[in-house]
Amino acid sequence: MQIGRKIGIFDSGLGGIFIANAIRKILPQYDYLFLGDTLHLPYGRRSTENIYDLSEKAMRYMFDQGCELIIMACNTASATALRKLQQDFLVKEFPHKRILGVIVPTLEVAIEHGATRIGLLATQRTVHSSIYELELKKINPNVILFAVASPLLVPLIEYAGEKYLDMVLQDYLQPLQDEKVQSLILGCTHYVSIKDRINNLTGGNIDLLSQDDIIPTKLANYLQRHPEMEKRLSRGSSFIITATDLNEGFKNNIAQLMNRNMPYSILSN
Questions:
Q1: Which pick of 7, 26, 105, 223 has the fewest CB atoms within 10 Å?
Q2: 165-183: b or e for each residue (b if 16 or more CB lie within 10 Å)?
Q3: Cβ of 156: how many Cβ atoms within 10 Å?
Q4: Which active-site residues does the annotation give?
């Protein structure tokens, strides 16, 4: 693989592709590397220690491939591994590189939208970590968060279970509707693909906060605030996709999800 000074995007599966496409629409000039840890999907059922080990291995690989800055698009990894990666791994081994998560930027936008009752739909591990509640208290302790774990959604999305989605979603959404949440955070990148379904099931009465709408602008703002990082990034408009299990199903899904107007290449990890 050609070594450049890339922006990396990491996810446990395919959901991060939505984030990557959205980022490239507003920041097309940079070089990108996407890594999906499809071999170990889903992260939501794994232990904290296992998620950290997998995440550190992924970060090391991406830095070795020339990434200067990595967006940890996986909410589960952001919830359980990001802080240790930033405060320990980076400090000791890659002090000039950066790893950014998606949780705090998402909460910042939720607060900006003015909701006082916010719902969260996320993996079991993300919900049980309470990271959204903890970070929300730092931003605005007067806002109430209602979290629902939705462990069946990622497998259904990854393995063509669309015909079951509405039934499962309705079961997960009902407690949030009963709590009369004003905004709903889709706390997993995979859920970007079903935000229209969720909007239909909620009658369009809940403000949906989807990370493909949030992270690109937040990244652009970050680069403006940190010109020392922005100047280090190469500008070849390339996009390389790698995965820990590069099977035919993954390749077919990528072909369906990618923006066809923006070139990309697939390489084995």
A1: 26
A2: beeebeebbeebbeeebbb
A3: 18
A4: 74, 188
In terms of residues, how long is the chain? 269
Half-sphere exposure of 7 (CA within 13 A, CB side): 28
Q: How far apart are CA 244 and CA 55, in angstroms?
A: 12
Q: Token pair for residue 22?
A: 């959205």
pLDDT tens for each residue of 62-73: 999 999 999 999
Residue 37 φ/ψ, nearest 5 degrees: -85, 65
* DSSP H or E segment with residue 19: helix 16-26
Distance between CA atoms of residues 145 and 215, nearest Å? 21
Strand order in the sheet with 144-149: 144-149, 117-122, 183-187, 207-209
Within 147-232, residue ranges assigned H as helices are 153-158, 162-178, 195-201, 211-225, 227-230
Residue 203: left if φ>0, alpha if ψ -120 to 50, beta else—which one?
Answer: left
What would the pLDDT profile of 103-161 be if each residue is shown by its tens digit? Answer: 999 999 999 999 999 999 999 989 999 999 999 999 999 999 999 999 999 889 878 88
Give the CA distances from residue 201 to residues 46, 186, 206, in Å, rounded to whole numbers and listed in that order. 30, 14, 10
Give the pLDDT of residue 260.
Answer: 63
- Residue 42: cis peptide before it, omega within 30 degrees of 0: yes
- Please name which of 74, 75, 72, 103 lies closest in space to residue 85, comparing C-alpha atoms: 72
CB 29: neighbour CB atoms within 10 A?
10
Mark 114-132 as b/e (b = at least 16 C-beta within 10 Å): ebeebbbbbbebbbebebb
| pLDDT tops 90 at residue 257 | no
